[in-house]
């Protein structure tokens, strides 16, 4: 399939780029997408949550009242979860939430996400983006030229461009990544995907 290549101000360059059907026009696999997004979100979790159980709570181990004759339930320790300040029953412990996915499955998930973007007409290809200095207003003008100012956008660069990244950093709906760090979650989370012309061939090489 072919898409028109645009300038960074939204004007048509008059050229077209051919996108690989193996990457941008496959039958999407929803389960692969689900697994890849689940892994991404799981990897973001620190897993440092912790609460004290009864053997970790500070306090006396003296029996707080006699066993019988009080008219109440028997109690042997202030550390019991039944008392205020006692330990917690089966509380959270530090753990690692990450899990492994096969490389081919992750590739399938990204291809599926890209194919969805093409089907939704949410994919744009630019000949290139570069700024002389890092200024947020430059990036806002760039989005206005593409009529994307009010949408969540994901700009994919072929290589690191510090000025472009710093210009977008203060905008809550704008995100800039390189081809190497592109993931399924960010693809699906964006309303519009903007690929630089140089990113297309790199992306096809990675996912082919």
Q: What would you say this structure looks like, in words?
A:
The longest helix has 17 residues, at 103-119. Strands 2-1-3-6-4-5 form a 6-stranded mixed beta sheet. Helices cover 34% and strands 15% of the residues. It folds into 2 domains: 2-46 and 101-207, Ribosomal protein L4/L1 (Ribosomal Protein L4, Chain: A), CATH 3.40.1370.10; 51-91, no CATH class. It has 208 residues and is α/β, with parallel strands linked by helices. The protein contains 7 helices and 6 strands. The model has no long low-confidence stretch (mean pLDDT 92). It is elongated. It starts with a strand and ends with a helix.
Structural class: alpha/beta
Q: List low-confidence stretches.
A: none
Give the CA-CA distance, first to last residue. Answer: 16 Å
Range of strand content: 5-15%
Number of domains: 2
In short:
34% of the residues lie in helices and 15% in strands. The chain has 7 helices and 6 strands. It starts with a strand and ends with a helix.
Descriptors for this entry?
alpha/beta, 6-stranded mixed sheet, Ribosomal Protein L4, Chain: A
Topology readout:
Blueprint: E1 2-6, E2 12-18, H1 21-24, H2 30-44, H3 103-119, E3 123-126, H4 136-145, E4 153-157, H5 162-168, E5 174-178, H6 184-189, E6 192-196, H7 197-207
Parallel strand pairs: 1-3, 3-6, 4-5, 4-6
Antiparallel strand pairs: 1-2
Helix pairs in contact: 2-3, 4-5
